[in-house]
Specification:
Chain lengths: 240, 287
């Protein structure tokens, strides 16, 4: 393929006029408020489910099963957020949001759901707990922001809890993928070998290892996101 | 009549700041800090300023000319594919090193692939007339990773000891090769035509039109037949090798080329009031 010869240095940094940030209209805002309230409620259901199951059983073990369905439902529902960005009612990057949501959905379905043996691992509880607390705070943050009435407590919680929750979630996720590896290798899950009619192969085991390695650059960038945002907010004096 | 332009300003800039690092291609001059950069050809007299003008400088980072870029992007796939074809050690298992595949189609695929990239290299040197521009280093690295990576990925499977030849055998391969050859000739004809258009500035700016060469008759229907033929090349190569990675590469290429073709088409329609209405961007009557 030949790139169209684009004329003078056009491919360089986009020297475009600053994009006017269009806020969502009234209808879109109403929809988003409903969406965020529903999500907050959903993750609260998961949180309550976890606590009740712990109290009932008296141990941390196997709590995944008690919240498996709402977890799958509400985490998968987050795919809508990609649509929100694409349509423009949320001023975030489609690519960034896409990566985040797909990463979560991947872990929920392609690892935890697909490899039954890891479902009783404690690492699953670790990331589920991290996700639950994070999402409850995040969705209530968005709800209040949309209603232009953000209590300082929520904003504080979001940026502060992140410091603990982010590494907690990453650790849980990595340990879970690691735990899944031997079973994937043994059963050849989601893998295609040669020879075949379409001359293609895919080794899910190697793919998972590559995913684990990709956590290093991906999560380091993510780890910096909030502290950077926080200092930017502090500098500009924006109080939301 | 004074005809100084932005390029002159950039050259003076280098002279004044005595810094050869900031060669003109790397400079971005704008009249407004957030405005669009000024093109090198813009005549100073025509700028919307008074007797003095304030310009804002931005360093675009290291730039490479188009010829260098195209060369780098195309030499990689050419050589990388050959490494796989000759089964250089450490790619496949040791006992397969330097062996050759028993299937004729594998050799034909190598010939086609190599021909395709040789043709592109030759066109880069002798045919294409690039406008006075360049590309930042980071984009080139990204592009090279893409082209080189994909050629390694598809070469791996085609030249694999466990490669399975196409389901319909010789018939499939031969038909695909014919289409491949037609598309390559078509693509070359279009590049020649575009190159002549660019060289022939005496008649002012014109859009490309069909000529006596039948391959250029695709201009009746599309604005960018070079991209149309290129898609055809890769589709035929996918059929010839019946290899999924090649198909994936074809689809991605098709998407990218459609984006380019649509942009070019829009530019043509905007610039030429008499642009043929029946033409679309890349797929006749459809896209």
């Amino acid at each position: 393929m030949s790139a169209a010869a684009q004329g003078t240095s056009k491919a360089a940094h986009g020297d475009v006029a600053p994009k006017k940030k269009k806020g969502p209209g009234a209808l879109a805002t109403a929809y988003l408020v409903i969406y965020n309230v529903v999500m907050t409620a959903g993750w609260l259901v998961i949180a309550v489910g976890l606590v009740r199951a712990y109290v009932a059983r008296g141990s941390y073990h196997g709590l995944y099963y008690s919240i498996e369905k709402p977890l799958k439902f509400f985490q998968t529902g987050a795919l809508l957020e990609i649509l929100h960005c694409a349509v423009g009612i949320v001023p975030s990057s489609v690519v960034l949001t896409g990566f985040q949501v797909l990463s979560r959905v991947f872990l929920t379905w392609a690892v935890t759901h697909s490899v039954r043996e890891v479902q009783s691992e404690d690492s699953v509880l670790l990331f589920v707990t991290a996700w639950t607390v994070t999402e409850i705070i995040r969705y209530s943050f968005y709800t209040f922001s949309l209603l232009n009435h953000l209590p300082y407590l929520i904003k504080w919680a979001r940026y502060t809890f992140f410091i603990l929750l982010y590494p907690m979630g990453v650790t849980g996720e990595l340990l879970t993928i690691y735990a899944a590896l031997p079973y994937v290798q043994k059963t050849g899950l989601y893998s295609v070998t040669l020879p075949n009619k379409y001359n293609f192969s895919f080794d899910y085991y190697t793919f998972l290892i590559l995913i684990m390695i990709s956590y290093i650059p991906r999560k380091s960038i993510g780890r910096l996101h909030f502290p950077l945002q926080k200092s930017a907010i502090r500098k500009t004096g924006y109080t939301g | 009549k004074v005809r100084s332009n932005i390029h002159n300003v950039k050259s003076v800039f280098v002279f004044i700041y005595s810094d050869p690092r900031w060669y003109p291609a790397r400079q971005s001059l704008t009249l407004d800090p957030k405005g669009k950069f000024l093109r090198d050809e813009e005549i100073l007299q025509s700028l919307p300023v008074g007797t003095t003008a304030t310009m804002y400088f931005k360093d675009l980072g290291p730039q490479l000319g188009w010829t260098t870029v195209f060369f780098a992007e195309n030499i990689g796939p050419l050589l990388i594919y050959l490494l796989f074809y000759f089964r250089v050690p450490y790619i496949y298992s040791d006992r397969c090193a330097f062996t050759s595949s028993p299937h004729k189609v594998v050799t034909m695929a190598c010939v086609c692939h190599t021909f395709h990239y040789l043709k592109r290299l030759i066109e880069t040197i002798f045919v294409h007339r690039f406008s006075h521009g360049s590309m930042p280093l980071r984009t080139i690295v990204k592009n090279c990773l893409y082209y080189w990576g994909f050629s390694a990925w598809l070469a791996y499977y085609i030249n694999h000891p466990l490669y399975t030849p196409p389901s319909y055998g010789e018939v499939q391969v031969h038909y695909a090769m014919v289409i491949f050859a037609i598309c390559e000739m078509g693509n070359f004809s279009i590049h020649l035509s575009l190159s002549h258009l660019r060289g022939d500035r005496s008649r002012g700016r014109r859009f490309p039109v069909p000529s006596k060469n039948p391959f250029t008759w695709l201009f009746f229907f599309v604005s960018c037949p070079n991209h149309t033929y290129e898609v055809g090349t890769w589709v035929s190569f996918s059929i010839m090798t019946q290899c999924l990675p090649v198909a994936v590469f074809t689809v991605l290429g098709f998407i990218q080329m459609t984006v380019w073709a649509k942009g070019k088409h829009r530019a043509y329609v905007r610039e030429f009031k008499d642009y043929p209405a029946v033409r679309v961007a890349i797929i006749p009557l459809i896209l």
